[in-house]
Amino acid sequence: MIDGSYENLLQFIDKKLYQQDQYGRLVPEAVSRLLDGDITDNYRTKTLICRLAAMLDDDFQTTDSKIKKQIKDRLFGDTFDVEHIQSYNDSNLQERQAILNEWKDQINSIGNLVALEMKINRAIGNKKYSLKRDAYRDSKYPSIPLILKQYPVWTKADCIRRQIAEKEKIMNYIFPEKTRTLQDQIV
Questions:
Q1: C-alpha dihedral, 152 to 157 to 84 to 89, nearest 10°
Q2: What is the C-alpha to C-alpha distance for residues 179 and 181, in angstroms, rounded to an integer?
Q3: What's the DSSP call for residue 114?
Q4: What is the pLDDT of residues 49-86, one digit of tens each?
Q5: In this structure, what are the phi and psi dihedrals at residue 133, rounded to the nearest 5 degrees?
Q6: Quick one: which of 171, 94, 88 has its CA closest to 187?
Q7: Each residue of 2-59: pLDDT tens digit?
Q8: 136: closest CA among 116, 154, 153?
Q9: Alpha-helical regions (H) of the chain
């Protein structure tokens, strides 16, 4: 991979992306299924997916090297954290178990997770979305203003809508020509 040409590297990656995995599933199908549920089982998976989702909301295709560096620093610097919009360990102890029972795997899905500055994430703790909104306004991640604009309140239904949109955004980016065909097969 290191010594070959750029074209050969792209062919190698493309071939790997459309092969079957060890369980006989096509890789796009496996990624699609991953994005349908809990992505927090593996720290690297969770952070990679959240970084990719944040990048896709940013101006990542710019030719401005300053902006590219800012995006890289945001996504791979020391300030990156993954935020649960609906807290996994809600600060209201009386409601915590009911929330987990209602949300099930959605609580750890890409619909409920978003890239956020570590400082902001740690400061807001496990508060309700209505209390987090003010702190979210200080974020430099473009995903956050989109959430604030689209979701004045945060419900499980909102999480599911956002999960569908995030999954489609990611699948279209990774597997652009295969996404429509794959979605038709899975549905």
A1: 110
A2: 6
A3: E
A4: 999 999 999 998 899 999 999 999 999 988 899 999 99
A5: -50, -45
A6: 171
A7: 566 767 766 776 676 667 767 777 788 888 999 999 999 999 999 999 999 999 999 9
A8: 116
A9: 6-17, 27-35, 43-57, 65-76, 93-103, 118-124, 129-136, 143-150, 156-174, 179-186
Identity at 45, one-letter amino acid code: T
Burial of 117 by CB count in 10 Å (0-12 exposed, 13-18 middle, 19+ buried)? buried
**Contact (CB, 8 A) for 132 and 124:** yes
Write the pLDDT tens digit of every residue in 120-165.
999 999 999 999 999 999 999 999 999 999 999 999 999 999 999 9
Query: Is residue 149 classed exposed, middle or buried when 0-12, 13-18 and 19+ CB atoms within 10 A define those classes?
Result: exposed
pLDDT, tens digit (0-9, with 9 covering 90-100), for 169-180: 999 998 886 555
Neighbours of 185 (CB within 10 A): 12
